[in-house]
Amino acid sequence: MSAQVASPASPASPVSTRRYRFATEVVTVDNKDDPYNAASVPIYQSATFKQKGANAEGEYDYSRSGNPTRTHLENHLAKIMGAKRALAVTSGMSALDVITRLVKNGEEIIAGDDLYGGTNRLLSFLQKSQGIKTHHIDTTNSDAILPYLDPHKTRLVLLETPTNPLIKIADIPTIAAHVHAKCPNALVVVDNTMMSPYLQRPLELGADISYHSGTKYLSGHHDLMAGVIGAKEDSVADQLYYVINATGCGLGPFDCWLLLRGVKTLAVRMDKQQATARRVAQFLEDRGLKVHYPGSRKHPQYELHKRISSGPGAVLSFETGDIGISERIVEGTKLWGISVSFGCVNSLISMPCKMSHASIPAHVRAERSLPEDLIRLCVGIEDADDLLEDLDTALINSGCLLIGDKLEKLSLEQQS
Ligand SMILES: *Cc1c(COP(=O)(O)O)cnc(C)c1O
User: Fold this and answer.
1) Whose CA is nearest to atom 6 of ligand 1?
2) Domains of the chain, each with CATH number or no CATH
3) N6-(pyridoxal phosphate)lysine: which positions carry it (predicted)?
4) pLDDT digit string (tens) for 181-238?
5) Is pTM, for the whole model, over 0.85?
6) Nearest 5°: phi and psi at 133?
7) Closest atom, ligand 1, to C-alpha of 193
């Protein structure tokens, strides 16, 4: 592909529109023009592509600019995300890096106050190194954004919903309407990693860009790193593609293939993970623990989440009231691996303040009311009874269930 061309040619078809229900579309990858009718999209593990003649360019010339395996993946992801076009890059953070490069000096970003740790780090870096200011707001209140919207300055509005690990919900349609009414040049961007396109499709709710860490649910097996960006408009996708080609963060052919392979089972994995997560949430609530899960009727934004998504997902967190107890629970489980990240077929347990969110300074964690004893659970596809029994044993051995009066106090608080 020549440097002048704005976007890579598609090897087969343009993005097809969804005709079937999600679970059918996600497992159906278009590969119509394969010369041998390969059932699985081949890996074009090639950096360069030869031309037929000095003036006869083919569809591809160099894999930084475009690669057939990547195009297949991007077309498939665009279909399931309801995007005009999707782009695959080397990690979730590189997806956000590409998106934030649309912000020029003097323009501003508005983002939530309970963000993924890496997102926080990148936004602080932009502020320090390039003077690009981010206003952090409470996205559970849709009107909190109004004073910060400036038609001359606001370029990106960055939302996460549910947030991680406090599981706060943002009303995407209402916030997007506020932004578009006041700032026609601003883009509403949603990090949809926690939900996956199976449960929530921000582009259909008013967002302009939706992105994912493909490392999580999309791949599902914690065996690759990837980021995915979906755009509602071609003009936005062209700008993003320009940055990807200019900086060289397009996803390599083998990882594209792995992601295309992993994503096919997204719906079936998520169904199982979510069903078990509902049981785990109930199990913890029954023991009087304070649980953060949008599938719980006690969640303050239960109705809102239900309106904008088709399920609560498989990440939840809970409080024990004591850091030592939390540590003993985390270390006491056998089936739940102590690990950052989520979205894997295996169940994971972590203490965000000591692990994934440790890069957020302690005083900021306190400001954002992130409890130091919080335990996050990312439910996998193991047998649900085994997972519950393992957790129960760890809870009992930690002494968590022995401090009866505290639990009594907790459950009284929850009832009131
Ligand atoms: C993991 C994660 C990211 C970053 O993705 P990487 O693939 O690790 O770079 C961004 N946002 C959320 C919500 C995440 O969970």
Assistant:
1) 92
2) 22-263 (3.40.640.10), 267-415 (3.90.1150.10)
3) 216
4) 999 999 999 999 999 999 999 999 999 999 999 999 999 999 999 999 999 999 999 9
5) yes
6) -85, 140
7) 13
